[in-house]
Amino acid sequence: MTIRLPWRLPTLHGFTHDARQLILASGLICGSFLGAFSLLRSLYLLRLGLSPAYVGVYLATGSFVFMVAGLPAGALAQRFGTRRVMLISAWLAICGMALLPLAEAVRPSFRSAIPILSQLVLISGWGSLNVVIIAALASATQGADRSRVFAMRGALQGIGTLSGTLIGGVLPGVIATVTKRTTDDATPYGVALLIAAAAGLMVIRPLSRIRGGQRPSAQDRTGQNRGPFPFLVVAALVGHVLLKHSGWTSCQAFCNPYMDTELRLSTATIGIITGIGQVAAIAVVFAIPQLAERWHHGWIVTLSSAILSVSLLLLAVGRSWLVAASGLLGVQVAAALWLPALQVYQMERVPEAWRAIAYGTMTTAMGSGFGVMSLFGGYFIDRQGYQQLFQVGFVLSLAGALLMAAISSRHQSGAMSDH
Questions:
Q1: Is 171's pLDDT higher than 90?
Q2: At 312, which CATH number?
Q3: Considering its fold, how many domains does the chain have in total?
């Protein structure tokens, strides 16, 4: 009996050597940072005795660094080549992750400074790597294959994040048992964070094997034949990204602390819940090429933003672990659809010579949205509570969905000029 899926599974067949290496690198670094490290970092800070408000400041610091790192990363890649900038960025990210567990080893009066220093180093590398790897992947793909390549990259990112999350969820308990401590202690989390940082070293090999990369032509260096920058398109997308990313951040930054402190779930349970959502997210990514045959990528971005809004509404109104898990699953599915579709949509709307700068501008908007919501959210939670913050996130994400629907409609009708 043959089982037929409603969509075709992308494969690496037919991709260029550099595209395969970049996809592999994306999966590996996501397993380290977005998986294990991101699951554990907030829980580690809380066990150091730091408040949710401090967690908000910590996350906001990283977001503002991400915001600043976006635009110069594109310029550095044009000046020094994508391969070199990606390698330096990866080393910065790994060193930044390794710095965070040192907070436990310093005197309490200096303890709050180490996480901030870690964020400065880590997100400088992570932000640059995110921008440059997109420019490198664009250079390594042809237009007809682009949706398939970015869908596969999204799937490998999801698989890496899932693997890291599941491993990160059980590591503190295992380490606590071996060291005869409890999971209320910071040490098992600090050791687990070091393991996550060490796992990041695996990304160096595929990045080292990149053969080509984006290199400016002589015309690019002199600024000729590039055409005008598409301000209207980019400005509209920046507005959408700010609204959507601010809403998404209310869960991304605070869902794990909410389930830990309010719902009293164990770290392993949080890891399992997050992992289930990541499995769903991986499956959804495979549908992007099929969806792109029916809709342009702007409508896929709109759909993902609508899913995010409904998911945040669930988190805002429910008080059980099951409702929270359902909301988190929807947030993860929405994010998995959103970013690959947004990246391809931007490439469809922006001339090749401006793509790195345009994407750098959007990563700046992502960093701004994440940073403002992280900073605001930590203090808001202290005064109003987690669910009230999710209500704010719902309103922002709904506004972002409506704006993207308007952008997509104008694009389809040809009313929005590219200049």
A1: yes
A2: 1.20.1250.20
A3: 1
